[in-house]
Specification:
18% strand; membrane; Rossmann fold; transferase; alpha/beta; GT10-like_C_sf; Glyco_tran_10_C; 3 domains; 415 residues; five-stranded parallel sheet; seven-stranded mixed sheet
Length: 415
């Protein structure tokens, strides 16, 4: 007896599984990709779908068409006389699994099934699988693979596939014009820090606690004998350096610290921004953190702002077009914005006042009794899951493609 399972939707990648009741399943893969890959995976049970599996890659010199093949009694197989590979003009049929190909150097989940998603959501970073994906996320600033090298152009885009323009870490003034020209007409949706994105993807957000008010209260001023801290390594933007210097000039020099490549005599004690244990140690004596962005643009709030919340300091924001940009993601009572004050001297005097008043200082941490910080990976996993859920809908019910997606996506800037 023979079971025949067609597991790929595109005629460019056909996967045929032949299985009998008494022999292991064998997967044959035909691909038009210019990069060869091994298509055989061990299937532990007949119910397991190859769509859940990443292709294994063997060294080029040892890359057979089929690996781990064991001879079997061919008399058990039913002869297949013809197999049609003709492409249909209709939209591809949908399987229960949705696949998202991520082309991004930074962030996003690793390859595999996404946990805790209502629909089976398979994430891959393998560029060779781009044709068979339901959704492609293009990080316009930091791609892992060149669309031109992959052969991914708007004219070669598979029918039924969705393309997402993603923009994260850089200010909108650094628009990747070349990639926008290459991919622009193929983009359907947007995902990024911009609040107008189809799939909002901020660097941080707060979520309500399941049991509000149950968090143990403590004095966040205790053990903090220093005032202002700033980690900065991009020395190019001069405006924010000027802001910091003017603010620091009104504060006791012994209570202000600047770490990083732009820290002058004070080098970064942690080596990089991802050494969390070191950052906790280096920041624990400071009450305020300078969350100064390199450019002030609409909705442009990066991980710099997160440091204050993460390490128990009050963030002093200098970014966005105004304070209102921050209040879209966090309570207004949880941070200080430079724009709140008529000048830097007034801001410095306010910090000194809070330094002498523990009760007033602790009010900036009351959000912790109502909310928790959402981990950035959790935010991005949720976005990926939402993409799969959208792709699961019938085509006519999905978000409409945005031919004018780049209008307003990068926002406005004031510096």
């Amino acid at each position: 007896m023979v079971d025949v399972h067609w597991t790929k939707r595109s005629c460019c990648h056909l996967v045929l599984v032949l299985a009998t009741w008494s022999i292991p399943a064998v997967v044959f893969v035909w691909s038009e990709s210019t990069v060869p890959f091994v298509g055989l995976q061990a299937l532990p049970g007949r119910a397991q779908s190859p769509a859940f599996l990443e292709p294994t890659v063997a060294p080029v010199a040892e890359r057979p068409f089929i690996e781990n093949f064991r001879p079997f009694d061919r008399s058990n197989l039913t002869t297949i006389t013809t197999v049609s590979t003709t492409c249909s003009s209709a939209l591809p049929s949908k399987s229960s699994v949705r696949t998202v190909y991520i082309s991004s150097v930074y962030g996003w989940p690793t390859a595999g099934l996404l946990p805790s998603c209502p629909v089976p959501c398979h994430v891959t970073r393998d560029a060779r699988l781009w044709r068979s994906a339901d959704v492609i996320v293009w990080n316009l600033r930091w791609l892992t693979s060149s669309p031109q090298f992959m052969g991914a152009t708007p004219s070669s885009k598979p029918r039924g596939q969705r393309w997402v323009a993603n923009y994260d870490f850089e200010a909108p003034v650094h628009q990747p014009q070349r990639l926008m020209a290459e991919l622009g007409r193929g983009i359907d949706w947007t995902a990024g820090f911009q609040t107008g994105s189809d799939f909002a993807k901020p660097h941080m957000k707060l979520a309500p606690l399941q049991e509000p008010g149950m968090v143990e209260k403590r004095n966040f001023a205790e053990g903090k004998d220093q005032l202002l801290l700033w980690f900065v390594s991009n020395c190019g933007p001069k405006d924010r350096i000027n802001v910091f210097q003017q603010l620091a000039s009104y504060l006791p020099a012994s209570k202000v610290q600047r770490f990083g490549k732009c820290g002058g005599a004070f080098k970064d004690p942690c080596g990089n921004r991802f050494n969390v244990s070191c950052l906790k140690t280096s920041t624990r004596r400071f009450k305020f953190y300078a969350a100064f962005e390199n450019t002030r643009c609409d909705g442009y709030i990066t991980e710099k702002f997160t440091h204050g919340y993460q390490f128990g300091m009050v963030p002093i924001a200098w970014g966005g077009l105004s304070r209102a940009d921050y209040e879209k993601v966090v309570p207004g009572s949880s941070f200080i914005h430079v724009d709140d004050f008529k000048d830097y001297k007034a801001l410095a005097n306010y910090l000194l006042k809070l330094d002498a008043d523990d009760a007033s200082y602790n009010k900036y941490f009351e959000w912790r009794t109502q909310y928790r910080m959402v981990d950035r990976d959790e935010i991005w996993d949720n976005v990926t899951c939402n993409l799969c859920m959208e792709a699961q809908k019938p085509w006519r019910e999905q978000k409409r493609s945005r031919s004018d997606w780049n209008k307003g996506f990068f926002g406005r800037c004031k510096t």
